[in-house]
Amino acid sequence: MKFTAQQIAGILEGEIEGNPDVEVSKLAKIEEGIPGSLTFLANPKYKSYIYTTKASITIVDKAFVAEQAITTTLIKVEDAYKAFSQLLSYYNQIKLNKFGIEQPSFIAETALYGKDIYLGAFSYVGDKVNIGDNVKIFPNVYIGDNVTIGSNTIIFAGTKIYSDCVIGASCVINSGAIIGADGFGFAPDQNGEYQKVPQTGNVIIEDNVDIGACTTIDRATLGSTIIRRGVKLDNQIQIAHNVEIGKNTVIAAQTGVAGSTKIGENCQIGGQVGFAGHITVGNNVKIQAQSGIGRNVKDNEVLQGSPAFGYGDYNKSYVHFKNLPRIMKDINQLQSKQNGDS
User: Fold this and answer.
1) Which residue(s) pair with 187 in the sheet?
2) What is the pLDDT of residue 80?
3) Boundaries of each UDP-3-O-[3-hydroxymyristoyl] glucosamine N-acyltransferase non-repeat region domain copy (predicted)?
4) Helix H or strand E encompassing 303
């Protein structure tokens, strides 16, 4: 797909310096620009590259004034970084703007779907599923019985959504995610063998939630596992049964949240954090990567370590952690000296 400088300037409400008819079909870093590519200059440390880049079009701030000859066509805007982000969003919309039902695919007779949907080949839509308008479902997606999916949601290839789950509007679920698999519920019997506890609940995902690739969200034993509005989950996260995550919380990759734990609103959680089950984490909490959370956490705490404790205390303690061999040597020498004196 090709765009001219004139078309791009129209989208961004920018001013052109150079050839308005030059065309681009790809994006590039300014230092790696080639003919036919579009790039941008926002960080002053990359300014020298604008004089050597071979990119056909470069987006710059309106304040930019060339100090040497340049070959790239400029599009001047108020904020180059923001404009480039806007252009990326526009490009994604075009790229994902698919419609229709591809074959082979299966849609149960009792399923309902809105206008302008896309259903990719080899997808399965079960009984009494209700899909909103402008939903994009890419190939090899499984949607179980009684699932509801809100309008403008995108579900990428290979996702599995088990029965009875509810997906809100304007969500993005990336490839390989599994929503509504059974929670890890087993109880030992009198012989010490583990018997499965039926998981009869569901998963509710509210509006504007992003779920990363290969992330799993388990259905509740009873009731619902709930991901509130605006939550952003990275790749390869495990959310166990009956967990609740508050609105606008963000969680980085490889974090695991054990059953029935409640995480508050506007939290920021680093990668590889482990949460014990049946605890409550307050609002506006920040947790550094690789921390272990085994207790309730109050609002606004900042934690690090395993088991985690106050971030400031952790940093002070770490100075001593790494010096423990030397400290122990000094202690042993003092003890030897005392024993010799006595």
Assistant:
1) 195
2) 95
3) 21-88
4) strand 302-305
Q: Residue 88: which residues within 8 A CB-CB, separation 6 or more?
A: 27
Residue 151: exposure state from Cβ atoms within 10 A (0-12, 13-18, ≥19): middle
CA 149 to chain centre: 19
The predicted pLDDT at position 128 comes to 98
Distances (CA, A) of 81 to 29, 55, 63, 78: 12, 17, 13, 9
Instruction: Provide the terminal-to-terminal Cα distance of the chain, rounded to the nearest Å.
Output: 87
DSSP 230-299: T-EE-SS-EE-TT-EE-TT-EE-TT-EE-TT-EE-TT-EE-TT-EE-SS-EE-TT-EE-TT-EE-S-B-T
At 289-342, the pLDDT tens digits run: 999 999 999 999 999 987 777 878 877 777 777 788 888 888 888 888 877 665
3-state secondary structure of 41: coil
Q: Which domains does the chain have, with CATH numbers?
A: 3-95 (3.40.1390.10), 100-315 (2.160.10.10)
147: its two tokens: 């699932």
- Considering the candidates 39, 241, 262, 303, report the single residue annotated as catalytic: 241
The neighbouring-strand residues paired with 244 are 226, 262
Phi then psi dihedrals of residue 57, to 5 deg: -135, 140
Distance between CA atoms of residues 55 and 58, nearest Å: 7
For the entire predicted model, the pTM comes to 0.82
> What 3-state class would DSSP assign to 86?
helix
Is 278 an annotated catalytic residue? no
